[in-house]
Amino acid sequence: MAEKQTILVTGGSGFIGTNLVRRLVSGGRYRVVNLDALTYAANPLSLADLDGSPNYIFVKGNITDRGLVSALFEEHQPVGVFHLAAETHVDRSIVSAEDFLQTNVVGTYTMLEAARTYWDGLPAARKDSFRFLHVSSDEVFGALGEEGYFSEETPYAPNSPYSASKAASDHFVRAYHHTYGLPTLITNCSNNYGPYQFPEKMIPLMILNALSGKPLPVYGEGANVRDWIYVDDHCRAVQLAFEKARPGETYVVGAGNERRNIDLVNQICSLLDEMAPPSEVHALRARGLKSYAELIRLVEDRPGHDHRYAIDSARITRQLGWQAEVGFEAGLRRTIEWYLSHPEWIDQASRGSYGEWIEKNYAWRAQKEKK
Ligand code: DAU
After folding, report:
1. For 191-242, how does the pLDDT look when each residue is reduced to its tens digit (9 = 90+)?
2. Which of 46, 129, 205, 305 is the most exposed place for a label (fewest CB within 10 A)?
3. Can you tell me which atom of ligand 1 is nearest the CA of 225?
4. pLDDT tens-digit profile of 271-324?
5. CA 89 → CA 137, 191, 206, 366, distances in Å?
6. Rounded distance, CA 129 to CA 126, Å?
């Protein structure tokens, strides 16, 4: 059997990271070193099943710690990096951008510098095959109107502190390729959903609020549009790019599932009505609610809220043969099923500072609604 190749993954304990690490380890080809700071969005239960696996090594630490990152390169001699560690929640970046600058910009710079030093010292063959894949977001392109799609040619126009920090990190990655020849790749993906997503993001927040009979807070009129992709489809795209793409390439990735927020929340409610009937769920039965949709509330909008995201994935399809495989309703069902069957994970995610965040992000919106 061929010897396993070691990969360094940053942010492997977050939502997309968890799904990617599990995919890489179970594929049998790689040994994964996961560097993760285990901030609020990481859940220790997410990868607990990999503990003790010879192909999985967890390192708790920060990507801004140059000494640690360089030591990991030297010790593990990875064939490449999947760089996912990031602060990712737009609403948190609006409250304070400090952590976003540190992790997304300084952290990415630190990873690039450590990777460059390591890569410089590799023998020619290993140097050629090394890849630094930076996982980014379509939010760097700003907002679309009713028409059009983001592509690799779309100019950067980030609108939130979060997307500004991701745009800055993308520019550093690009510059390290252009200036030093570091074999980098960038993927800019649309909104992910699926198992293990921290419940500050729209889909898991709505599922969990609904099941506990709490309001479903839809920002503004619910007319903003997002283009949803099941997390496994995204992870497959990222792995394919890592294994097949030419250094310096960038790919936008999306599954062509555009939905207005209000329509999506209604769809979640209909699926929940069927999968967890309100008559069987105490929080709803006690209040005589017949459908989860009765919990929907329009609340004060997100400042600077981007109207629409939509992706034209033609390049990754043409060059790498990638296509999304999971249909939207099937993916939503799978996601809801996963949250229904993982109460311990939800319990863990809801501990710590989660309640404080919910209070900070939603209390003022509710007050405005009453006016
Ligand atoms: O497009 C890719 C991006 O998608 C990623 O780069 C980000 O890390 C990820 O968080 C996501 O950004 P969004 O801001 O689109 O995701 P979020 O889940 O926060 O919100 C989705 C939409 O739902 C957005 O239009 C805001 C709205 N929303 C969100 C929340 C949390 C609500 O109406 N109510 C809510 O309570």
Report:
1. 999 999 999 999 999 999 999 999 999 999 999 999 999 999 999 999 999 9
2. 129
3. 25
4. 999 999 999 999 999 999 999 999 999 999 999 999 999 999 999 999 999 999
5. 12, 12, 16, 20
6. 5
Alpha-carbon gap, residue 58 to 301, rounded angstroms = 39
Contact 320, 133 (CB under 8 A): no
CB of 62 within 6 A of ligand 1: the answer is no
Q: Residues in the chain, how many?
A: 371
Expressed in angstroms, the distance from the first to the final Cα of the chain is 68
In terms of Cβ atoms closer than 10 Å to its own Cβ (0-12, 13-18, 19+), residue 338 is middle
Strand partners, 253: 189
CB-ligand 1 contact for 226 (6 Å cutoff): yes
Counting Cβ atoms within 10 Å, is residue 321 exposed (0-12), middle (13-18) or buried (19+)? exposed
> Which tokens is 300 given?
């004060």
Average pLDDT of 32-44? 96
Instruction: Give, as one character, the DSSP assignment of residue 160.
Output: S
Helix (H), strand (E) at residue 66: helix 66-76
pLDDT at 367 over 80: no
Q: Which residues are catalytic?
A: 138-139, 162
For ligand 1, the distance from its centroid to the CA atom of residue 227, given in whole angstroms, is 11
pTM: 0.97
Distance (Å) from CA 342 to ligand 1 centroid: 23
